[in-house]
Structures are given as structure tokens and as C-alpha cells.
UniProtKB/TrEMBL annotation:
Keywords, ordered alphabetically: Acetoin catabolism
Known pathway: Ketone degradation; acetoin degradation
InterPro entries found in the cross-reference section: AcuC, HDACs, His_deacetylse_dom, His_deacetylse_dom_sf, Ureohydrolase_dom_sf
Pfam family, any one: Hist_deacetyl
Protein's name in the database: Acetoin utilization protein AcuC
Length: 392
């Protein structure tokens, strides 16, 4: 094994930019890399950087229709909308060289997967990735090309027989689910805010996979207001049992941090500390169920200064095998950089001063608790397909 963590990085990954008024701003990635660098995360032994090449058309066609790829190229050249492909909407405005920027992100996610599959690193990361909404023939939810689905499809092309995808973004991972809905080689698990209150309106517990893959899509639809303890209870009630049964060759995770209480686009109440507990759990599950092979992608996160840089710096540090003390102060140089780039005051510490813990679901089901009802709905829908008793 070459190293513990291979990070796919190129400065061009910040060119995926829908404009200054759009919530998905590339500054979040820039600030994350600067904070991780300032805290010495990249100096940890076993970290290396992978060169990134844009995904070519043949690679993109593993998950996207050729006509759609052509439309993205055209829209990024003419800057004219194309309603037939979802290009030019409020969520997905066209911008110059859109294809090039999106293809580079897709290439970076495949580079992270390649490093893991080829044994160059245990873990591979592309924090600019995780664009999990785009569909085979259209842009959707801030996502032009679905790099997460592409990384999975590439792994299957290399001969992987079982790939697990765990999505902890506050929004349902609908694009990835759609592309593998009838493929039992891919287990998709998404924990997200209920479709009753949040985009994209999918991800109900009854969405369990197509006729040839029943039980290979699992959705935990959590009520608005879910906090750290309830979220962690739901995660541990569903994700570990399914991964242990499935035994993936590679674990791919989408690490959207828009579950945070400060996120302006959603309604969950997690802290950076609760999110950090999730990163540790996924790291351990990668070791336990996938031989350590873990592909880590970014995702949503719209509190650009207070949340995303701290969350994803903790994520990279965890993946490096050298997690950070949450009580660490953020570097003064980084604080100045934040002020210069955004005009905002940076967070002073790497913690929200929370000590999240949870009571395991197995200790008892509370029918009056909406989170417990969501957990039980998922377990009843999916667990029997895998021979797991949903009541245990």
C-alpha cells in the first residue's frame, strides 16, 4: 500500500462556479484546503496528492447520455440555456467552460477511486466532488456531471463486484440511486432530511431498489429538527448492519455537511462535532467491511465559512489516520485569509463545543419518536431482503 490517503487535487477544481449569487460557492473548497494546510493535515505521514485529468467523453458515458454531454459543452460555449437538459435553470445556470469544470471534478473522483482500487492508497479523496443529484440525461440540484456515480461505475468496469455507497448529505442522493437502482452490485444508503420538507422530494423508505436489486437501495428519511444524538442513532441503526452483510470491496461515501444547524438550505440540527463522529464511524466501517478501501467525496454545504472548512478538514484528518483535537484553535493566518476573501469573521476553534452521544436503537424502539419511526420504516423495508431481522 503506497500511502494512507491520496487526495485528488488541482486548483482548477474551484472553477466549478455558478456565479456569485449561487449557494454552491467554490470558496468553500478553497477555504477547506487552506485550513487543512494551516493545521498541518497535509504534513501527516502517508498523505500524497494525485494528479487530476478531466474525464473524457468515453468515461463520462459510463453514466451520462452522449447527447447530454454534447449539450453541456454547447451550453458552456454559447451560454444559452437548454431546458431539455436542465441547463440554465436557477439551480443550474450555465457558465463559461462548464463542461471543462465539471469534467475535471469527475476526473478527480475517478482518480481517487483509481488510487484505492490499484492499491496506491487505502483511502482516496476528492472534496470538490460529491455532485450526487445529476441524472443520466439532465442537470439537477447544482450538479452537472455525477462524479459519485462515475467513480462507482469506473470501479465496476475494473471488475469490482460489490461497491457500497453511503450518502450523509442532508439531501437525498437521488442521482446515484437512480443510476444503480436495478444493479445488485451496488448498495446505496442515503440518510437525509425527509422529502416532505426538502429537495429533491425523493428518498422514501419504500425506495428499496428495482426488481433485480430489491434491498440494495436504503433510505432513511429524517424529520426536520433531527439533532446529533438522533442522527447518530439512525446512522448506527441502519448503516453498519447493511455494510457488514454486504461486505463491499470498496466503500464510497458522499460527505455533504449541510446537515449542520447553521446550513441555510436545510433543517437538521447537527454540529461539527456530531459530523466528526460520523467520519470516525465511516472510517472504522471501511476498515471492518471493505478492507480499508474508502473513496471520500465532498458534497453539499452552504455555510461556507463557519461549517464547511472545519467539517471537511476534520474529515481529511480522520482519513489520514491523524484526527485533529476538536479543541484546536484555527490558525490566525487562516482567520486573516477568511477575512480577506469573504469579509466574514472566521470560527476560532475546530469545535462547536458539543459532546454528541446517542442511545443505540437496539436498546429499545420508541413509537412516539419520529426519528425512531423513520429508522424502523427503513429497517422493515430493507433488512429482510438481506436476511437481517429488522426488530433486533
Amino acid at each position: 500500500m503506497g500511502c494512507a490517503l491520496r487526495i485528488a487535487w488541482d486548483d482548477g477544481l474551484t472553477a466549478y462556479n455558478f456565479g456569485s449569487d449561487h449557494p454552491l460557492a467554490p470558496i468553500r473548497v478553497e477555504l477547506t484546503m487552506a485550513l487543512a494546510r494551516g493545521l498541518g493535515v497535509f504534513d501527516s505521514p502517508g498523505i500524497s496528492f494525485a494528479p487530476v485529468e478531466p474525464a473524457d467523453d468515453a468515461l463520462l458515458e459510463l453514466v451520462h447520455d452522449p447527447g447530454y454531454i454534447a449539450a453541456v459543452k454547447q451550453a458552456g460555449t454559447t451560454l444559452h440555456p437548454d431546458d431539455a437538459y436542465g441547463l440554465g435553470t436557477t439551480d443550474n445556470p450555465v457558465f463559461p467552460h462548464m463542461h471543462d469544470a465539471a469534467a475535471l471534478i469527475s476526473g478527480a473522483s475517478v482518480a481517487a477511486a483509481r488510487a484505492v482500487w490499484n492499491g496506491e492508497a487505502e483511502h482516496g479523496a476528492n472534496i470538490a466532488g460529491g455532485l450526487h443529484h445529476s441524472m443520466r440525461k439532465n442537470a439537477w440540484g447544482f450538479c452537472v456531471y455525477n462524479d459519485a456515480a462515475l467513480a462507482i461505475a469506473w470501479l465496476l468496469e475494473q471488475g469490482a463486484k460489490r461497491v457500497a455507497y453511503v450518502d450523509v448529505d442532508v439531501h437525498h442522493g437521488d442521482g446515484v440511486q437512480s443510476m444503480f437502482y436495478d444493479d445488485p452490485r451496488v448498495l446505496t444508503i442515503s440518510l437525509h432530511e425527509s422529502p416532505l420538507t426538502l429537495f429533491p422530494g425523493t428518498g422514501r423508505p419504500g425506495e428499496i431498489g428495482g426488481p433485480r436489486a430489491e434491498g440494495y437501495s436504503a433510505n432513511v428519511a429524517l424529520p426536520a429538527g433531527t439533532n446529533d444524538a438522533s442522527w447518530l442513532r439512525a446512522f448506527h441503526a441502519v448503516v453498519p448492519p447493511l455494510l457488514r452483510e454486504f461486505q463491499p470491496e470498496v466503500l464510497v461515501t458522499q460527505q455533504g455537511c449541510d446537515t449542520h444547524v447553521l446550513d441555510p438550505l436545510a433543517n437538521l440540527l447537527l454540529s461539527v462535532d456530531g459530523q466528526r463522529r460520523t467520519y470516525s464511524a465511516l472510517h472504522e466501517l471501511a476498515k471492518e467491511t471493505a478492507g480499508g478501501r474508502w473513496v471520500i467525496l465532498g458534497g453539499g454545504g452552504y455555510e461556507l465559512v463557519q461549517v464547511v472548512p472545519r467539517a471537511w478538514t476534520h474529515l481529511l484528518a480522520e482519513a489520514s489516520g491523524h484526527p485533529l483535537d476538536p479543541g484546536l484553535a484555527t490558525p490566525e493566518e487562516w482567520q486573516r485569509f477568511v477575512k480577506e476573501r469573504t469579509g466574514e469573521t472566521a470560527p476560532l476553534r475546530m469545535t462547536d463545543c458539543r459532546s454528541p452521544d446517542y442511545t443505540p436503537f437496539e436498546d429499545g424502539f420508541d413509537p412516539d419518536d419520529p426519528v425512531d419511526r423513520a429508522i424502523q420504516a427503513t429497517r422493515r423495508a430493507v433488512f429482510p431482503c438481506h436476511g437481517i431481522d429488522p426488530m433486533l
